[in-house]
Amino acid sequence: MTDATPGRARPQVPLVAGEELRTALAALIGIAPAEIEDDANLIQLGLESLQMMRLATKWRRAGLTATFGDLAASPTYAAWNELIVRTLKEQERDTAG
Fold first, then answer.
1. Rounded to whole angstroms, how far apart are CA atoms 65 and 92?
2. Interior/surface letters 48-70, b for 16+ CB within 10 angstroms, e for the rest
3. What is the value of pTM for the model shown?
4. Which of 34, 78, 35, 84 has its CA nearest to residue 56?
5. Residues 76-88: tens digit of each pLDDT
């Protein structure tokens, strides 16, 4: 399944972390969450560059400072989860302070 498949909704991947991120990425790729090991290369698992560009754009709008290049440089669940966790903590700190 690609993003351009007619009549099929694209899975949405909000700025979430942990198992929610793993589940959302798995839905986007079209695999089971258990198939995404922490250090597995998401591109090799089937994530397309266009999907990654869309994620980068969506996540930047949600406050993630990472760019498409940052995501492409380390396309693993662990690296992306770390970026998102850091961003969510910063957002929490900013709203609390």
1. 15
2. eeebbebbbeebeeeebebebee
3. 0.81
4. 84
5. 999 999 999 998 8
